[in-house]
Amino acid sequence: MKRIWTGLIATLLLSLASTTPSFAASNDTHAEAASPIYGVTIPHGYRKWQFVAPAEEADPLNELRIVLGNPAAMKALEKNTLPFPDGSILVKLAWKRVPSAEFAPASVPGAATTVQVMVKNSKRYRDSGGWGFGRFINGQPADLAQHQTCFACHQARVKNHDFVFTRLAP
After folding, report:
1. Over the stretch 25-71, which tens digit does the pLDDT of each residue have?
2. Burial of 118 (0-12, 13-18, 19+ CB in 10 A)
């Protein structure tokens, strides 16, 4: 199983290096579009941030997902620092899973689906555990209903880990 994950991650990272999903371009053209409730925007330059981990989720979406972290988030993850310091930002990218034409057991990124952003600011987001949330589809914020579920889900499941699901991949 570990070998399969390693192969999938390597395939995904190689594909990322050679492709530009639609949300990469939308980062600059829609950077000021802010999420409802939290006012979070897609951060400039996030595609150059470090890889944190894959984000495989048990859901019917059939997506490949990875999480990237800005320098403040990476430092906290590397040192196992909780709570995350203000200024930490995590970005989850998702694509439809497409079978690889070259290697049947592997998948490669297809169409981009979402960019999800978490921004740590303990004063501004006091009522949501210090985190602001943004979910973007084609560079535009998802609807209000999708944002209303962000904190509730994190609070119910990972309150003891500063509301963050992601762990640094070894």
Report:
1. 333 444 479 999 999 999 999 999 999 999 976 668 889 999 999 99
2. buried
Nearest Cα to Cα of residue 54 among 26, 16, 28: 16
Task: Give me the CATH topology for the region 2-161.
Answer: Chalcone isomerase (3.50.70)
Closest CA to 163 of 32, 17, 22, 38: 38
3-state secondary structure of 147: helix
How far is the first Cα of the chain from the last one, in angstroms, to the nearest whole number?
A: 15
SS3 label, residue 55: coil
For residues 109 and 92, is the Cβ–Cβ distance under 8 A? no
Instruction: Record the pTM.
Output: 0.82
